[in-house]
Amino acid sequence: MTVLECRGIAKRFDSVQAVAGASFEARPGRIHAVVGENGAGKSTLLKIAAGLLSADEGQVLLDDRELSPHTPREALRRGVAMVQQHFALVEAFTALENVVLGAEPKRSLGRLDVAKARDRVLGIARDLGADLPLDAPVSSLGVGDRQRVEIARALFRDADVIILDEPTSVLAPQEADALYLALRRLAERGRTIVVVTHKLDEVRAYADAVTAMRRGRIAYREEKTAGKDLDIEAAADAIMGDDKPPPVVRPARELGERVLSASKLILGRALAGIDLEVRQREIVGVAGVEGNGQRELVEVLAGLVHTDSGEVRLEGGVASVVHEDRHEQGLVLDASVRDNLVLGELGRFTHFGVLDAGRMEAVARERLERGGVRPPELDLTARALSGGNQQKVVLARAVSRRASLLVLAHPTRGVDLGAARVIHAQVLEAASEGAGVLVVSADLSELRTLCDRILVLRRGRFVATFEPTASDASIGAAMLGGQA
After folding, report:
1. Cis bond leading into 375, ω under 30°?
2. Sign (positive/negative) of CA torsion 216, 415, 183, 131?
3. How many domains does the chain contain in total?
4. How far apart are CA 212 and CA 35, in angstroms?
5. Is residue 305 part of a domain?
6. Residue 249 maps to a domain
7. pLDDT tens figures, 237-280
8. What distance, in Å, lies between the first and last C-alpha atoms of the chain?
9. Would you put residue 201 in left (φ > 0), alpha (ψ -120 to 50) or beta?
């Protein structure tokens, strides 16, 4: 089986040194976790390992032979596949069609051998311990099944090394457990598993080795040995360095008047009679497996979609919304960080048709610093930032608008521990200053940290309400419609 090794990898994007002389090795039969802050270079290093990016310096070796030519096709031919954070699936195709796409088994005259493809994919599904709905269009699948389709696609191409970037960011706890169980099965069969994650509890529970990156360099590495677990606290210290923010404290707040009142919201099959209320200084959480109406609820509250029936009342009159897809609905990727930080507010900086560039610069700079965006350069394009720092830009803009209602969809998805604490502190500060906040998230620890109450959304309905002290098992069971 393939041993993956990166030696002295360096990669620069314009003025940003993303990876600086990093060396990394992953061996068969083990689950390797790669952790670090946003912008630490984790995804960049592993995209280089998978042939998706080329290095400025250094080598990628597979079984002691250099990856050459350095392309995704050659990496895949040599047994390396990467499942990226944003899935690369064709929504209109079935799960089976997506798995075999580009590697279709052929019959005579070049025709697709459907029976052979199905038999082989069913065998892969059994190895994963998954019951994949092969004939269902991907558009109808939940995130957990989509994740398994991506992994099955890698296995269909005989990948020995499977790299996964933030694979559990939108999974319910039980789904995350099932995914790691499947990854463990693959490791036991001799495959090499590399997982980029911000969830250190997952590293503690499932990983055999951990590598921590900081500012493009390897800051810590450790392998589990017989009788000795991984030192997660040491890994966390290496990630944060001297920049560790204080723990987030949820202060007591006296709730005020209603800022949001929604009743009997119905929207196709997505929303099936939603009633919802948020008050001043209250933070309400919405938990649920993705695809149960969360996106549609946020779009209704943002005024982007009209419901079939029902009513939404914004008592304060102003809502600031962060959507779940920052690329599609949160950023202009080829515009500067400066412009993205004040997006939609040019009227605020214009007097008699003249733009006050100095005031706009000052506001953008203040938001940049308050949001902890790295690198702190206003002239960079948003595209040049890491995913986590892109999220910081979106959150800094939303929270700074002093709206009466904040609607935040997955506010810390793909964001490291330090950045998440900064964002959480901003959300709590906004609530303390009088805003009502609705947080939609699949991260139950985030909801417990922030929220006064947690609602579970399943099949377009709120099916349960929990205190923030409720267990993952209880909330996860409600999310999946089962028992704790």
Report:
1. yes
2. negative
3. 2
4. 5
5. yes
6. no
7. 898 876 666 667 777 889 999 999 999 999 998 999 999 999 99
8. 39
9. alpha
One domain for residues 359 and 231: no
What kind and span of H or E run contains 243?
none
Tell me, yes or no, whether 251 lies in a domain: no
Closest-CA residue to 386 (of 9, 16, 8): 16
Q: How far apart are CA 178 and CA 171, in angstroms?
A: 10
In this structure, what are the phi and psi dihedrals at residue 337, rounded to the nearest 5 degrees?
-60, -40
Q: Which residues of 383-407 are buried (b: 16+ CB within 10 A; e: fewer)?
A: ebbbbbbbbbbbbbbbbbbebbbbb
- What gap in Å lies between CA 441 and CA 443, rounded to an integer? 5
Q: For the segment 147-159, what is each residue's pLDDT rounded down to a tens digit? A: 889 889 988 988 9
Structure tokens at 191: 């495959």
Give yes or no for residue 302 having a pLDDT over 60: yes
- Confidence at 484, pLDDT banded by 50, 70, 90: very low
467, 250 contact by CB (below 8 A): no
Tell me which residue range forms the domain holding 175.
4-240
Residue 356 dihedral angles phi and psi, to the nearest 5°: -85, 85
